[in-house]
Amino acid sequence: MAKHQLSQATYERLKAEFADLTTRGRIEVADKIERARELGDLKENGDYHAAKDEQGHMEGRIRQIESFLEDVEIVPPSPEGVVGLGTIVAIVYEGDSEDAAEHYLIGHVEEKPDEDHISVMSPSSPLGSALLGATVGATVSYDAPNGKLKVTVLLTRTQG
Questions:
Q1: Is the Cβ–Cβ distance between 102 and 128 less than 8 Å?
Q2: 34-42 long-range contacts, Cβ below 8 Å, gap at least 24?
Q3: φ and ψ at residue 16, rounded to 5 degrees
Q4: N or C: which end of the chain has fewer CB within 10 A?
């Protein structure tokens, strides 16, 4: 089983970001470093240090994406009405009204919800793993730090 389970859209987005950072990104930051070197003394050259910091952050992101892409499994969408990887789910905690529903995208940290009010939930978290396979109307329970909690699935949909 692959370590990083991604939707097709996220896989494509990461491949494009990797290609961009390893080509255009590296060239741009190298140009910034070169221009900053031309300004003189490197010890007190803020432009140089900022460009080197940018380079370090970019190289870290490149390595991170590379590790995701080396060990990836593209996960197909779940059947309609079933919570799975890449599913947006609305849940309500036992005793709360449906107005208090919370919305989550179940998936990898690199998945990007298509709406601002939706948070990403790891499928390996206690609630995330309890929700996998649940259907609309189902009530699932999971162990939280303050005891066992129950949530009801109000709706599911595949993102996109």
A1: no
A2: none
A3: -65, -40
A4: N
Residue length of the chain: 160
Residue 83 to residues 36, 40, 99: CA-CA distances in angstroms? Answer: 51, 58, 20
Q: Which domains does the chain have, with CATH numbers?
A: 4-74 (1.10.287.180), 87-158 (3.10.50.30)
The C-alpha R_g of the chain, in whole angstroms, comes to: 21
Instruction: Using the Cα atoms of residue 150, residue 101, residue 135 and residue 107 in order, give the sign of their dihedral.
Output: negative
CA-based nearest residue to 108, from 91, 125, 127: 125
Q: Using pLDDT thresholds of 50, 70 and 90, give the confidence band for residue 2.
A: low
Token couple for 73: 């499994």
Selection from 154, 160, 112 nearest residue 135 by Cα:
154
For the whole model, what pTM was predicted? 0.79
Query: CA angle at residue 79 from 135 to 122, to 5 degrees?
Result: 70
Amino acid 77: pLDDT? 87
